[in-house]
Amino acid sequence: MQVLETIAQLRNWVAAKKEAAQTIGFVPTMGALHDGHLTLAKAAKAENDVAIMSVFVNPTQFGPHEDFDAYPRDLARDVALATSVGVDAVFAPSVAEMYPHDGGIRIHAGRQATILCGASRPGHFDGVLQVVSKLFHLVEPTKAYFGQKDAQQVAIIQTMVRDFNFPIELGIMPIVREEDGLAKSSRNMYLTEAERAQAPHIYAALQLARDVLQNTHDAAAAVSAARTHIEAHTSGRIDYIEVLSYPDLAAVDATTTDVLIAAAVYIGSTRLIDNIFVSNGGQ
Amino acid sequence: MQVLETIAQLRNWVAAKKEAAQTIGFVPTMGALHDGHLTLAKAAKAENDVAIMSVFVNPTQFGPHEDFDAYPRDLARDVALATSVGVDAVFAPSVAEMYPHDGGIRIHAGRQATILCGASRPGHFDGVLQVVSKLFHLVEPTKAYFGQKDAQQVAIIQTMVRDFNFPIELGIMPIVREEDGLAKSSRNMYLTEAERAQAPHIYAALQLARDVLQNTHDAAAAVSAARTHIEAHTSGRIDYIEVLSYPDLAAVDATTTDVLIAAAVYIGSTRLIDNIFVSNGGQ
Fold first, then answer.
1. Which of B111, B138, B160 lies at the smallest CB-CB distance from A165?
2. Is this complex scored with an ipTM above 0.85?
3. Which of B168, B138, B142 has its CA nearest to residue B20?
């Protein structure tokens, strides 16, 4: 395991792998690794000659009142976990290493970023696309791995890779859940014991919405059932529950083949997201 | 010489060169090739194992009232000229091949794009960055070549490559001029004989500005001298004449090391641009 802290070190590592004609699997993360990240890392290692993970809490995707400063950072723990699943290198740059200049050029996500999490996090996905495009140019991966848990992020990154012709394959891995169904997240550690007991009801509500959608083909009824479930079983505040086409994230209609049912709920002060895919439009 | 019309053909060509560990020199153009382009192509061929040129009139960098439809297109002529200087492949895609989808993601150039040509061409440099980033991802060149004639374009592309960590070297080639000093341009063919006779005074005015700057260290006096020269010797309308730091394109001050003197002048209805670099700030 090599820990690479500078772009120069990373470029040397990448050049050596390219020269040896090795395929590179890449897992971009903000650290605070959990089983979801490790599932991505295992796939990166299994499907490629070498696997590299980035650990970088990217400031440009946090809003001014979000948890950039408080976001958990423990590089030694992350490196140990990455090592345990066979990752060959961790790229862990400083903010100054990643953003030494600002020439003012920005990538702006489009309509896909104005809904769901984007509605309450203006600029968030612009920052994600900025750092992901930088990391793609730095790591030059054969295949990059993302978790389906961040379904909107995945949809927007898929769109960027497609529309800007990045020479990179994407691997999208299923959500990893706790035994009671709660989607694994670095933010789960913020939950109190009482909040943690309520949190699995987000997934239960999504499953209920899926069943209603499959039985009634009625998106509004599915959303309503999920809302009622969360309001009945948690003290949480619903940010959104939506039924959308995937990956364009528009209203579902008769032509929709892949449906995303996505929720964001504040349990206490912790905002949790989760989602379910339904094939064949739930039609 | 291979003419590649689809992205699939291009990807195959690039993969074969990469597999053979060959370096790729790349010259992006909008066709209508002149000696300036061929100078770029010769450098691409001389400095790399193989050279590829793109010929694509990119709609997203033209404004609604600009000359996209009228822009000269003659692929057979361009391919013959590229062949004559040893180019190995020409990538000449259709608009539908380059823009089959629109997910709405855009690259926005920053302050550098708000002045000079950007002031009268809103969105132009956004479109340039869009197509250049797509072409960079498609061609995966070792080194890409641009002409110093489009100094603002070069400054903005250099900024994108730097800030977004493109794994690409840039080669910037000097302006190629007619014997009377007029910078070569695809748009020179639009000039009437009388206009063509006036056009060299743009370069003469820039040389005068350079001399005034070097003698007086007074940017305003340099601009004034160039304006007076153009007004005295042409019937043209000055769009801009500016003295700026390079590559940030800001006001010149005591710390400036590289100065760009740039002009855009309408001669008749044809807008011509030209520029001169002055090292050591003309100080």
1. B138
2. yes
3. B142
